[in-house]
Amino acid sequence: QGLARFDGLTFTIFTSHNTPGLPNNQITSLAETPDGSLWIGTSSGLARYQNGRFTAYGQADGVKSKSGTINTVCVAPDGSLWIGSQDGITRWVDGKFVNDIDTSAYSMIGFRSLFVDRQKAMWLAVGSEALRYQDGKFTRFGPVQGLPAQRLEMLREDAQGRIIAVTQNGLLRLEGERFVPFEQNGALSSPRASTTLVDR
Fold it and tell me: What kind and span of H or E run contains 96?
């Protein structure tokens, strides 16, 4: 139902009705780039909030998304923006959209999230599998590599640089080329984890 900003006292709601440049009220993801821009994924394209103004971007601008839905946006350690949809990956680099990663060999149905780790590898959560893109090639991780058959919500990196998988069957971490469950999963109130955050 729109984008809400809280200033410490009140909420201001931005919608496609009161905000030119916001393409849709269904917000899918948010990310802030080093220049202070807030990038907003929606079910009808991408928007950028900068200097008090919203600007919409879509396929005509170079964003790879035939359906219009942006599944996820994230900022890499080098400050570049990565945009993911079921049609593939787009990067915002030096003020322009770049489509130089070919995902056509993989089904992106069930694509939920992406992030870029400190080794510059991109990780995608797609259905119950993980895809790692590094040095120009993809590596698939699934049940053979220790991931459960349940939905993979997201992949993240902990403070030590280990890759963490957040699944509907608890948390797992990558050891070598295999995911193993956290020993502490039994202490979770529910194994159905949906997100995780590394604090300071």
Answer: strand 96-98
Q: For residue 169, give the amino acid letter.
A: N
Q: What is the pLDDT of residues 122-133, one digit of tens each?
A: 999 999 999 999
pTM of the predicted protein model: 0.88
| Phi, psi dihedral angles at 61 (to 5 degrees) | -90, -5
**Residues whose CB is less than 8 angstroms from the CB of residue 129 and which lie 6 or more positions away in sequence, other chains included:** 140, 141, 142, 147, 152
Cα separation of 90 and 82, whole Å?
Answer: 6
3-state class (DSSP) for residue 154: strand
The secondary structure of residue 132, as a DSSP letter, is E
Tell me how long the chain is. 200
At 184, is the secondary structure helix, strand, or coil? helix
- Report which of 188, 149, 150, 182 is spatially closest to residue 163, judged by C-alpha positions: 182
